[in-house]
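REVIEWER CHECKLIST
Item 1: Sequence provided? yes
Item 2: Single chain? yes
Item 3: Sequence as submitted:
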Amino acid sequence: MPPLAPIPLLAPAPPGGATPELFRSKPPELLRLQRMLAARRQSVAAAGRRAAAGSRPGRAGSQSGGASNASSGGASRAASGGSGGAGEPGGADDLETPIRVSPIALHGRGAVSNPQTRFDALRRHAEDDGWFNEDGDAPALRTEIVEEQARSIITRNQSPDIPFNLAINPYRGCEHGCIYCFARPYHTYLGLSAGLDFETRLYAKTNAAERLRAELAARIYRCEPINIGAATDPYQPIERRYRLMRSLIEVMAECRQPFTIVTKSSLIERDIDLLAPMARQGLVAVYMTITTLDPDLGRRLEPRATAPWRRLETVRRLREAGIPVGVSMGPIIPFLNEPEIESLLQAASDAGAQGAFYTVLRLPLELRELFIEWLNAHYPQRAKRVLARLTDMRSADGVERLNDARFFKRMKGEVGWAELIRLRFRMAQRKLGLDRHRLDLRCDLFQAPASAQPQRVDDPQMGLF
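Item 4: Structure as written out by the authors:
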């Protein structure tokens, strides 16, 4: 028997110098996980071969018949060189035909695989190498964090279908693990995968507050509302440790800089003491993302995000503190959370929400493969229907596709099913009064922070100048 080949990593090795040393080695949890996936796949394949062999004519019968079949089978194997037939245990297929590893949903993680990036020249896939592990379920992947010094913190965009021009994201990657997150493909620019790497290998911009102060003090800066959390959630679990969002709010409170927050975490309640005074001045608004009221669907869609009922409670507490709150139902996915449009908006209105908006699911780049894998792992019976409806919303011009990147088309879709979703959302919005309030912010109170003064050096030689 030839030696067993090691299982290749699902994610490629990052380009040299592009990724910190922490990510250049194979995480032991990921290696063990791959072995577990291979073992499970091998067991299923072996059971299928045994069932197929047992159902052949002549396999069932008396003990003597069984012995006769066994002896004849042994003779035929000897005549063919001593190996079993193709497809049987011990046959040629066991050594020559690779067994692909099927993705398996992991507890506490959204993605079910770690696909390669679009920049890789070679393609890899996991195969069963015959290893077997009886240690039980695959271990949970640990979250690894890299602290980095950002050169800038305010991002500017020119997209005509986005209602803000300035944005801040204090973290890269997001531990919430939402399978629908459009920011996943951004992780590939770091040489990492948009799958499990996006959820487990995070970057924290530890100098975010210092950079914000410097950019607000720049002479070319003109005040306008800044959105925080457009790509990754600023209140994801690691914020408890780094407190970057709180430090950003402190700088903006000092400068009276208007801003909006998009989050799905109840951790925002920690900062009510800073947000409430700013809300009274018309400087802040919060949008709570609530995609579903079903806790089971929520655990699958957003495995490490706050539970839906807890988000509604957070909306209630923010409103009690006088902070303007809207609800984002995004994204809407046909046959998954789409049936909940009316009931979710009713619950948000009862909690005190003042406005609501939605988007439909987008599947750019690597996100398409990740979502299809997730759908087949969690909802295989609905997969074809969901994908067919998504295609309908993106194929108004006759070209069938799952994603349409055109401005003013990508967020809502068009014709057919997309129009039905728009009408349903609009009618519920009007009925509940969620279209009557505009969360406008004031820019006339802005005060630029004082420029950093150079530090005095206690050096006698400085007296010469």
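Item 5: Key structural point noted by reviewer: The CA atoms of residues 175 and 236 lie 6 Å apart.
Item 6: Recommendation: ____
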